[in-house]
């Protein structure tokens, strides 16, 4: 019987796993949270530093019509007509989206990552098909949302949302058109009232930018994504929060900002990250020529390494030369006593599992059908951000900092993995039986550790009273890979944490200079 080992867990693409990936419950424990009522509306956010926009006013938004015009009055009446016959489903979508649109779009994105985080099955000839963006509905559907791809998706959506909201805040303060419930006191108000100007609608901005980015990243899910965007816009009108012209201006602005990020994504070198058979052979031969044992796929049939050129992708927080400077020194030689000791330590761990270690392994596994490690940290951050009662624009800023750190951590980690092409512990000692699946890429450095070090660093800066807790989580995430027999403790996990923290420091540096503090 052929042995199929997926990159994080041994899993078969059964109906059960598909249900887990597509279940709405995957959105987490935030379904019934109160409506967002920020303690600070961050009215000056239109002056904050964007990621790609040259300025908040790069894309023009026309001045709105006056609130005493027949057209505006007609838009007020549209709200009243909706509110006259609200259904339970309409009340539900108002409640859902009023929790915060940055939160909800991040949940939707995580759901799509989980849905697509299933490696393709092999062809009859023993080769493996590759998802194709030019034919996204063919098997395997594009994308395969592996950890680097997922981290990139989170970063592009979050950074685009942030820039779009900075622009929205700029025009809000410029035009200062009030919310419709401040114009007509007879309107029902189904969301918390705010002093934030209504034009352009921040929710429509987010619907426009998120939908455009996610359609690029998940082209097979465009109908679902557009349905969510339409639902969000409708919820704002039903709630009495925006009139139609607020929505239209916001959506147009969001779409315009998205195109700038789409252009960047098309040229960031991610499309070439898969490599080819010649490159894969060169990596193996180069390692052998150095006198080292090269990494090899332990799957049957042998699967090509995952995204060997992802280390060449253009990062957000620093330039590509910095990726090289962040590359750690080499791991212990595969023939050294140090490596022998590391292998023995892994063998001992996997031979002596405990209930607590298995809990830690399972909690941080983040394998097929999940959000991936970067998304796991997004989920952790979301629950903590809810408690902080941030404004939408601050939510976007903080999520962008985290997501950009995770993408750049993936780039730096993958650069190291394929620079050294170091074998996994179970390759060095076949008696090691991992307690979860074997990832299909080199061992040094640990991806979980790098992701977690970066996340803990920027989150600890954003919420300093939680810094020690985040560091403890990062340590546990790193340990989980050692306990599972997937990584060496000292070289892979410890070094990965250090490298991740260095990436996180760049996110902190940006946070200190973006004008939001």
Automatic annotation (TrEMBL):
The keyword Cell membrane does not apply. Gene3D superfamilies: 1.10.606.20. Residues 1-21 form the signal peptide. Pfam families: PAP2. The keyword Signal applies. InterPro entries: PAP2/HPO (IPR000326), PAP2/HPO_sf (IPR036938), V-haloperoxidase (IPR052559). Keywords: Signal. SUPFAM superfamilies: Acid phosphatase/Vanadium-dependent haloperoxidase. Residues 409-502 form the Phosphatidic acid phosphatase type 2/haloperoxidase domain. It comes from the Bacteria. This is PAP2 superfamily protein. It comes from Chitinophaga ginsengisoli.
């Amino acid at each position: 019987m052929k042995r199929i080992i997926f990159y994080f867990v041994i899993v078969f693409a059964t109906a059960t796993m598909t249900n887990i990936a597509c279940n709405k419950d995957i959105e987490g424990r935030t379904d019934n949270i109160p409506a967002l009522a920020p303690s600070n509306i961050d009215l000056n956010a239109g002056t904050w530093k964007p990621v790609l926009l040259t300025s908040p006013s790069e894309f023009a938004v026309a001045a709105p019509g006056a609130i005493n015009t027949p057209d505006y009055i007609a838009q007020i009446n549209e709200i009243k007509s909706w509110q006259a016959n609200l259904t339970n489903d309409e009340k539900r979508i108002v409640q859902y989206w009023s929790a915060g649109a940055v939160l909800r779009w991040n949940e939707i994105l995580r759901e799509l990552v989980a849905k697509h985080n299933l490696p393709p099955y092999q062809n009859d000839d023993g080769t493996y098909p590759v998802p194709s963006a030019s034919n996204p509905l063919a098997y395997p559907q594009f994308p395969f949302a592996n950890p680097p791809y997922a981290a990139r998706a989170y970063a592009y959506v979050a950074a685009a949302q942030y820039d779009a909201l900075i622009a929205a805040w700029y025009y809000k303060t410029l035009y200062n058109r009030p919310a419709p419930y401040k114009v007509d006191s007879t309107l029902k108000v189904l969301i918390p009232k705010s002093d934030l100007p209504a034009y352009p609608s921040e929710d429509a901005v987010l619907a426009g930018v998120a939908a455009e980015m996610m359609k690029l990243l998940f082209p097979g899910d465009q109908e679902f994504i557009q349905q969510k965007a339409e639902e969000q816009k409708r919820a704002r009108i039903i709630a009495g929060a925006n009139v139609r012209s607020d929505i239209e201006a916001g959506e147009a602005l969001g779409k315009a900002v998205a195109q700038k990020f789409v252009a960047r994504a098309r040229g960031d070198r991610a499309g070439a990250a898969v490599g080819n058979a010649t490159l894969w052979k060169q990596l193996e031969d180069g390692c052998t020529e150095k006198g080292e044992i090269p990494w090899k796929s332990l799957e049957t049939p042998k699967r090509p390494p995952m995204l060997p050129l992802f280390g060449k992708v253009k990062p957000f927080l620093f330039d590509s030369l910095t990726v090289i400077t962040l590359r750690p020194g080499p791991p212990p030689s595969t023939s050294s006593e140090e490596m022998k000791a590391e292998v023995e330590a892994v063998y001992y761990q996997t031979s002596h599992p405990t209930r607590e270690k298995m809990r830690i392994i399972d909690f941080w596994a983040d394998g097929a059908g999940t959000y991936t490690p970067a998304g796991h940290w997004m989920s952790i951050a979301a629950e903590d951000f809810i408690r902080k009662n941030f404004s939408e624009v601050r939510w976007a800023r903080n999520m962008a900092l985290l997501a950009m750190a995770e993408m750049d951590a993936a780039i730096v980690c993958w650069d190291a993995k394929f620079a050294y092409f170091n074998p996994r512990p179970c390759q060095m000692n076949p008696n090691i039986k991992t307690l979860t699946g074997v990832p299909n890429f080199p061992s040094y450095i640990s991806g979980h550790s790098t992701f977690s070090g970066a996340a803990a660093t920027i989150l600890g800066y954003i919420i300093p009273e939680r810094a020690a807790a985040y560091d403890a989580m990062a340590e546990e995430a790193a340990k989980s890979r050692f306990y599972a027999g997937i990584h060496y403790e000292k070289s892979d996990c410890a070094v990965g944490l250090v490298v991740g923290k260095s990436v996180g420091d760049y996110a902190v540096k940006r946070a200190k200079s973006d004008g939001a503090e």
